[in-house]
Amino acid sequence: MRPTTLLFFAVILISGLTFSEPAVSEPIGGSDATAVDLDNFIATQQPTMPGTRTILPPGRVSFVAVLKSQPELIKVQYLFEALAVMQIEPLPKVSHRIFVESAEGTIIPVYVEDKAVPLIKDKVATESQASFVGYHVYNYSKGPAIVVDSIN
């Protein structure tokens, strides 16, 4: 092969590698959130066997609820174990939870990604209603374990 031909192929190969677009990451659970009625979701999202937890492929959900407490630091080891089982990479940064109240008065804990903590603190007053967006990770005795990553 002639040197100019080799140079031509080398330039094409290098330019193809140099100008490729970076991958765009989607939110955990996909880009579209399904609006759920929180009371119905709590009632229907129970573990398959009482006293256990049922890990699920993360699915995006949005729900309306009253914020009962501002974000507080907690240990979230089981959440990370569940996400690791589902091979979610990279793992989100989660170290907070909030309590929310459904329309019928059921109060449940909800995980909060660290990036959403300032949004909640700045935009949602305790005892006010908001639309939360996140992903459903597992079911346990209190219903669905949800990780909030934004608010509407």
Detailed description of the structure:
The protein has about 150 residues and is an alpha+beta fold. It has four helices and seven strands; from the N terminus they run H-E-H-E-E-H-E-E-H-E-E. It has helices at about 5-20, 40-45, 75-85, 115-125; strands at about 35, 55-65, 70-75, 95-100, 105-115, 130-140, 145-150. The protein has a five-stranded mixed β-barrel. The longest helix is centred in the first third of the chain and has 16 residues, at about 5-20.
Tell me the layout of helices and strands.
Blueprint (H helix, E strand, L loop, with lengths): L2 H16 L15 E2 L2 H7 L9 E14 L4 E2 L3 H9 L8 E8 L5 E7 L3 H7 L5 E12 L2 E9 L1
Parallel strand pairs: 1-2, 5-7
Antiparallel strand pairs: 2-4, 2-6, 3-4, 4-5, 6-7
